[in-house]
Amino acid sequence: MKLATIHAEFTEREAWNLAQFIKRLRFDQCYELTDSGYSRRDREAQAYEMLAAIDKVGRALKDAGYAPR
To answer: How distant, in Å, are the alpha carbons of 36, 38, 45, 51 from that of 19?
Structure first.
């Protein structure tokens, strides 16, 4: 598996709002954004991958001091 490294800069407000969004994002919302042509199993797998990737961004925000409760 090839890894991708990204770097992004945010204003404090953007970082806080993104952290809030990540905190509130749910599986069913990710599932709705998957390709409707996929099988249920594939859509679920894709939704879980989305959440895992978003969780990494959330952890980076937390490490930078943006961790809403």
So the answer is: 28, 29, 23, 13
**27-42: pLDDT as tens digits:** 999 999 999 999 999 9
**Would you say 22 and 58 are in contact if contact means Cβ atoms under 8 Å apart?**
yes
Give the span between the Cα atoms of 56 and 4, in whole angstroms: 12
CB 53 within 8 A of CB 5: no
- Joined together, the tokens standing for residue 23 give 């905190």
Q: Each residue of 10-22: pLDDT tens digit?
A: 999 999 999 999 9
